[in-house]
Amino acid sequence: MLTVKGLVLMQRTLGEQDRFIDVLTAEYGVLEVLVKGAGKLNSKSGSATQLFTYSELCLNDKRNGVRILNSITPLSVFYGLRSSVSAIALASYFSQVIRYAVLPRSGAPEILQLALNCLYMLSEQKATEAKIKAIFELRIASLLGFMPDVIMCRSCGEYLPERLVFSVPDGYFCCEDCITLPEDETGFISMTAGTLQAIRFIVLSEPKKIFNFAVSERSRKPLYQFAEEFLCYQMERKFPALEYYYSIQRTMQPDVPK
Predict the structure, then answer these.
(1) What is the pLDDT of residues 27-70, one digit of tens each?
(2) Which fold has domain 2-77?
(3) What long-range pairs does 200-209 form, CB within 8 A, spacing at least 24?
(4) Where along the chain do the CATH 2.40.50.140 domains lie?
């Protein structure tokens, strides 16, 4: 018998009543768990195995390589997510990134904490979706070993240039006086010192403090652009849930770029 606390990232139906769930845990990474009878109307496990529910799970020993749920107790349900299609779509994007990047049997306590914090902020609307998204992207990239070099200009060593250019592929920045851009400028994002400071705060702060910063309107766009492009470049793929999230955004805000 194994008892763990975990966040439900995905559900897959098996037959008429059973389902598999993928659960992110601190100790074992992402676990695949068989939930028998989850589709029954009187199922005791139904609500606790819903997407994005954080629960305590008691699992039977493996049978044919699969763990079977014995009992489950919900700890955090994040009810606020259910009131926003956009928030659910963004949470699904987080889930896809985690399932792609976190290996089974690989401890992921900091990634679990990041996911729970981001879902709480989404559910309670404690920050804008764009800010939460950028924080998740930059922080999980750093936790996975892809932290961008935010210390100083790669060429001259200046700590806080007023204007700079960040290289998405190489993960470093140079001040405008030092950078030589290619003709198409693909993979390079111009930003101000305010954006650089926000990136530094996200990747270097203590986990509980990563939301405690403000960024000016002028600095937001390059921050959000860099965070998304940097993570997707490091993951070497695009995520369907991200495309769906933007399709939802465009229905609410027609000026959102395609």
Answers:
(1) 999 999 988 876 665 566 667 788 999 999 999 877 766 889 98
(2) OB fold (Dihydrolipoamide Acetyltransferase, E2P) (2.40.50)
(3) 200/150, 202/134, 202/135, 202/138, 202/139, 202/227, 203/138, 203/139, 203/142, 203/147, 203/148, 203/150, 204/150, 207/110, 207/113, 207/114, 207/117, 208/117
(4) 2-77
128-252 folds as de novo design (two linked rop proteins) (1.20.1440)
For 93-110, the pLDDT digits (tens) are 999 999 999 987 788 999
Tokens of 72: 């489950």
What's the per-residue H, E or C state across 198-215? HHHHHHHCCHHHCCCCCC
Identity of the residue numbered 50: Q
Rounded to an integer, the average pLDDT of 172-178 is: 93
Place of tokens 């005791």: 44
Mean of per-residue pLDDT scores for the chain: 90
> Cα 154 from chain centroid?
28
For the chain, the straight-line distance linking the first and the last C-alpha, in angstroms and rounded, comes to 48
* pLDDT value at 115 more than 60: yes
